[in-house]
Amino acid sequence: MSRISRHWKLLLPLGVLVVLASVVVSTSFASSNAKTVKVAIMTDCKGAFGFGYELDIGGAQAAFANYAKGKVKDPKKPSAGMTGIRVGTTPVEIVGYGCGDDTVPTAVKETRRLMEQLGADVMIGPLSGDEAVYVARYAKAHPNKTFIIGTAGSQDPTLQIAPKNLFRYHADGAQWNAGIGELAYKKLGWRNAAIMMDDYSFGWTSGAGIIADFCAVGGKITKRVFPPLNTTDYSSYVQQLGGPSKVDGTFWVVGGTGTSASLTAYEQAYGAIDPTKHIGNLFFAFLGADKVVAPKMVGSYVGGSGTGPGLKTAKAKTYEKVINRWYPGQPAADLFLYNYFNAAWALVQGLTVSKGATGTALQAAMPKTLNTGYQVSNGGKVKLDSRRQAIGDQYQLQLVKNADGSVGPQMVAYVPGVDQTFGGLFKPSSPPPGRTQPPCKKLKTPWQGKVRIVKNGIITNQIIK
Amino acid sequence: MSERLTQLDVRRSLPWLVVGLLVFGALLYIVVLAEPSPDIGGNWRSTTFGSAIDDWQSFTRTLLNGLTFAALLFIVASGFSLIFGLMRVVNMAYGSFYLVGGYIAYEVQQRMTGAGFTIPGIEVSTWEWVFPAIVAAGLVGLLGLVVQQLFLSWNQGQELRQALITIAISVIIADQVIAHFNGGLASTVTWPGWTNRLVELPLLGVDYSLARLVMLFLGIAVGIALWVWLYRTRTGMVIRAGVDDLQMTSALGVNIKRTLAIAFVVGSALAAFGGVVGASQGAIAPGQDGQWLLNSLVVVIIGGMGSLLGAAVGSLLYGLTFSFSAVYLPTIGDNCCTQYSIVFTFILLALVLAFRPQGLFGKFS
Amino acid sequence: MTRDPKQITERTIGLVAVCVLLLAPALFSDYWVDVILTQMLIVGIAAASLIFLAAYGGMISLAQTALAGTAGFILGNLATVGGEGGESKGLALGWDPTLSLVIAIVGTVLIGLFFGAIAARSTGIYFLMITLTFSVIGFYFVGQVTVISGFSGIGGINRYTPGFIGDMVNDRYRLFYIALGVALFVYAVIRFVVRTPFGLSLQGVRDEPVRMSSLGYAVPLHRTLAFGLAAFFAALSGVLLVWWQGQVAPGDVGLPATIDLLVVAVIGGLARIEGAWVGALAFILIGNYIRDSWLTRLLDDLHIGGSFNTIIGLIFLLIVIVSPDGLVGLWDRLWGRIQGGGDSDATVAPAGAVPREV
């Protein structure tokens, strides 16, 4: 006993220190002003979509600057932050930026950090599909918080999970490809096609849209090949596609390093590529592929992503001016930026109606339509369906050579009013998109036969026949 | 006495028997048993192209795909094997060297051709590929030297510590790559224009990509160069001695520190060169560092560390297995099975480890 | 029992820590209890399984995350129910939660024994690599075999907890106390096992496998059993993890998760079991608080570029260079200095030394 009492000089302060430190730390983030609405922007800063960080934050903050008096700290770096956001008399504070890496465990930690440690009331985000599936489940368990999906393309969050406090004002990955099948069937004369898609959630979702659209109009998908994500060597998978002699055309839904690698492998297996025999999803034209892949595929049709680059309507020009005003140099037609912008704008509208209240009051006040930059049909308004998923116009693209020699996507087709179910093909009870989902079925989608040609950024009245 | 000997022999040769059976079974399946898959459904015998007898061309193509992929694997893994074998360092930043090498070559090639976004459309000259490769290998060799001198030379022998240090370095490098190289977007290096065609291979009866054959040639060239260096120069001799017994070699009065540094530089340069070839053949992006570290580990595990022959054989086995499983695994409906080729190759790897953990040509320390 | 001052100090600190944890809901904010401390306990259990194998078995295993994930996936597939509302994917068999829990743990131990038998003949760096391949196989397996999980994983698992555990969704402190109990249990079991004849011979196998083999001990068997025991701890951690997260996904068993656990163990210290929870706490705090801190902004100001990942890499590098035995090793060495180079705690683990590999 005496030994212990000898060391009490050491042990007692130690014990006190431990307790003190813990108390100090735990109270260091006690909640501040109760009236402030706390918003968290959840995006990726690592992994496959790490470059989306500044784009996402820039989009959301541009909306706050334009509609909620926010002051941008650094027009060149959105993640520097912003101050002074105010909706009516309610101040809004951005409490943090989430840093995901496209995987679920990181999404778990970041979501909890933003919503529980930093006490956010609203989340704008996340960026990627698998993360959104987790956020949807989290939203279901936390009905007092509001979640507006940033730019995630997975189908499940609003079709199968669909919690009442989750909103998505943009189309999912399958919807983005609506109309591309019709282009292939009617304009290129494809009757049977092979498809290569990453053996991964987004690969399956994006591919599902292509398959559904092409088969709906009468085409047949004869071969589906699934290389694992970021395979090192695509030569053996490309072999399975069968060359130009076996199919009328090939659809490509391969991302990351695979976009270029798989096309190179195809070239090396079957010779020079004929762009009219290949159609890719958005990976052909965006995320750096415009430099690497596009030059080989000039003339190919490319699946869109819900934005209309080069659209010459007054609304589109206004939108692009807004982005340019707050963050000059950021690509306004980029899907990451556009979708986060719309999400933040919807939030501002919701807060205006709810007069600064969050929770279920805000959820009831969230707008059911949104006047987005590239929407044309329905009076220029994106509409939310009964599951709070956007029904919106889609634009299909084609790779063209610009005057300065660069290659980029240009709109060629306008598809009005695309909904998530594809005319009833995807139901809440359907399994999520996968290797065999959807099956190749002929049916009538709401936009079939209504796809119009776009020339030089102007939507003509010509229907694609 | 003689009974005891036969018992021993059976025990030892059992793994080889099993391996032999598996290889024979696989060959039988690929060459004879497989059938072309029907449009719907299929059974355990259906493969995309059927057997080699049904479709000789596909078989030959798959074989060539495997060989050329093995060449790339060899270029990258040989450096890893060298570092691993000699210094017993599991260089977890090896994949990062691959990544940096690819990106440096990309940047240099962009500046050289000045064309930026239209590179794939124009002819790239041979020098416009070779020079970026040299720059990349050189700079990454230098990076390797810095890393080795600063972080690895003073804790020689503490394997785990070195593995952890290199893990930390790989995290830092991966992050810096995103910050400084094309924003971390997937990028490619372009092969010289003249490789962009198919050549007829009369003996095999197929047309095959010249670019991939160039890759095969590069792999063989690297192999020969390494062989000459390791078996015909003094430094190489010291390295081989060091692989066998590092302590003894240094006790013999050789400047072992210099040799270790040289080996690390060469290994890093090989990683970078592999990165250039990989970026030409496919693309380069953050995430490839982890992928290629794994690939190198697989090759070295199969082939045995510190052995040039082991790296070659390991690359061949891995490349061929991957290539063939991607084409000849059964296709039953849409849900099975060629997408499992990666899992398949790793299961094979686990089997090799189970039966012969030191690899085919490795020596147990 | 020695009256060594270091041992006394450590025991007192340990006691204080446990008391603080017992009172945690009263002392800390909800977020701290639910996220930081619970996560620390759970990750610490997995790290303890790794450190157990490293310190007492001489095997650095990178398969612990895979084993933890396996338990989580088995539990998720068996216990959850699918259907409308779509929270759960996977097999969604809807079995009794208690039975599912037992099967998950027992199943993982069996898988661990199986892998252990395969890996037992390898040592050192080879053992590390073979366990690494298990992790990679596991990742691709659960990601690509979509009927078991798929890439977005299985959700809603914490809704299906056994009766004796109760509701974990609404009563977050319950999970915290269960995790605390399991962590103490694991710690006690490890301390107990290493003093048993099995534990002692395991350490003999660690130090001198050839001699032990010539003495008649079945070396691979010892290693296999140790691996199985570590798999048991990992399974406990995995089950707790999926209850805490509410779900399980391939990202939980992939390469980054595996490396993270190794980092946790190394930061804490591979030589002593206490390092598991010390390392877990340090890792979680760093990950949580560095992100928006002045350190990241410093990188920009110095025009070095990069994000907080560079900072984390640098911190990790610093720790490994300065103290190869992690934070606990640092503690040991400080004590060594205070005591003027006298005996440090004569536990059975080799104090202050990274286990030698053959």
Give a verbal description of the structure:
The complex is a heterotrimer of chains A (465), B (365) and C (358). Chain A is built from 15 helices and 19 strands. With 465 residues, chain A is of the alpha/beta class. In chain A, helix 3 runs parallel beside helix 13 (335-354), helix 4 packs across helix 5 (129-141) and helix 7 crosses helix 8 (201-216). Chain A starts with a helix and ends with a strand. In chain B, helix 2 (56-87) runs antiparallel to helix 11, helix 3 (94-113) packs antiparallel against helix 4 (127-152) and helix 6 (210-232) packs across helix 7 (234-244). Chain B is globular, with a radius of gyration of 22 Å. With 365 residues, chain B is mainly α. Chain B is 68% helix and 3% strand. In chain B, the strands form two sheets. Chain B has a two-stranded parallel sheet. Chains in contact: A-B, A-C, B-C. At the A-C interface, helix 2, helix 4, helix 5 and helix 6 of A face helix 1, helix 3 and helix 6 of C.
